[in-house]
Amino acid sequence: MKRRIGILTGGGDVPGLNPVIKSVVYRSSELGYEVLGIRRGWEGLTHLRPGREPDPEYLRPLDRANTRAIDRTGGTMLHTSRTNPGKMKKDPLPSFLDEAQSARLACTEGVYDLTPIVLDNIRSLGLDYLVTIGGDDTLSFSEVLARKGVPLIAIPKTMDNDVQGTEYCIGFSTAITRAKELIDRQRTTLGSHERIGVFRIFGRDAGFSALHAAYVTSGRCLIPEAPFDLERLVRILVEDKHNNPSRYAFVIAAEGAIWKGGSVSELGPADAFGHRRKANIAETLADEIRRRTGEETLASELTYDLRSGDPDALDQTVAITFANIAVDLIRDGLSGRMVAIQGGNFVHTTLPDPKLGPRRVDVPRLYNAERFRPQYADRLGSSIFLVPPTD
């Protein structure tokens, strides 16, 4: 059966998106399906200019020729945005909407729901399926469309690795690999200057990135799920430094980590999904340590470096496999599903329920809150991603 598949990437970029796009195109071509790339995430389905001719600003037909080499680079050749069609402010509304049309789409004061436009564009483009690649925010609107009857398959990606229903999201392994390389390199300057280092890593609501980076560097870490005792942390870091022959210590802090009784302010305007930028916990914590101890400290940002460049081998493998499973699900007529890893195995599952929020670290099983370390013991039976078996 001839099918036309639309594919888009939403939210922040991660290494591994291009291998997904290429593999969807290649597997689809084997089955005789047509693939239409939708540029700039959900914006491509809200701002697509109406008319008989395809809008080159937002549409790109994909084939083996124009995707042949894209898996060798990071980022997404379809580009991305943080557009939320269900809650759009007035300023970014499509220019082709007149006042009457905008008024019909208004849902609250200054907020518009462009879901009807998205549905109209899906129909006008003749899309039989959508493949949506994204994290919680992108997938939350995927769930809206699935409830309205749009056939789609979702693929999870985020360095935070916090999408419900899967142990692994594309981009996570590369982020941890890069974090390990950067931390190991910076050990030399920490030791040369006898400093205490504080590394800030992604993880607004969940601490998987900080936890795994600490796991592979034998470091201490701070995660959003476990507010920490600041005095105890400072004391342990000073002990670490003086017990280390190289006279340095470090801790890895997820961006959403906070000490008991403290707070990290949010800066700037909220994005389309209501997220504001967190103040830098590394700088704040490094200042506190210096003020309390007199020790020289160094705050280091490990964020955007981790999402740039080529995917590592594990992310490449997962991306290719997720993509092929997605097309196989389309072949089999399944819809409203997300490709996932559970128990270390490739599976498909329901789309994440937005009401559940992000997946979070199981603190009692995975994190030693007293010592600010990952739990290394009792890993038998766990997934490779450290997820323990369910009771």
How would you portray this structure in words?
The strands form five sheets. This protein has a seven-stranded mixed β-sheet with strand order 3-2-1-7-8-15-16, with helices on both faces. With 391 residues, the chain is an alpha/beta fold. The model has no long low-confidence stretch (mean pLDDT 93). Helix 7 (172-193) crosses helix 8 (208-217). It has twelve helices and 18 strands. It has helices at 17-31, 43-46, 64-67, 99-105, 115-124, 136-147, 172-193, 208-217, 230-243, 281-293, 313-331, 363-366; strands at residues 4-9, 34-38, 59-62, 88-89, 106-108, 111-112, 129-134, 152-156, 196-201, 220-222, 249-254, 266-267, 277-278, 297-302, 337-342, 345-350, 367-368, 373-374.
Secondary-structure topology with pairs:
Blueprint: E1 4-9, H1 17-31, E2 34-38, H2 43-46, E3 59-62, H3 64-67, E4 88-89, H4 99-105, E5 106-108, E6 111-112, H5 115-124, E7 129-134, H6 136-147, E8 152-156, H7 172-193, E9 196-201, H8 208-217, E10 220-222, H9 230-243, E11 249-254, E12 266-267, E13 277-278, H10 281-293, E14 297-302, H11 313-331, E15 337-342, E16 345-350, H12 363-366, E17 367-368, E18 373-374
Parallel strand pairs: 1-2, 1-7, 7-8, 8-15, 9-11, 9-14, 10-11
Antiparallel strand pairs: 2-3, 4-6, 5-6, 12-13, 15-16, 17-18
Indicate the structural class: alpha/beta
What is the first-to-last residue Cα distance? 43 Å
If you compute it from the alpha carbons, what radius of gyration comes out, rounded to the nearest whole angstrom? 22 Å
Spans where pLDDT lies below 50 across 5 or more residues:
none
* Overall spatial form: elongated
- N-to-C order of helices and strands: EHEHEHEHEEHEHEHEHEHEEEHEHEEHEE
Beta strand count: 18
Largest sheet: 7 strands, mixed
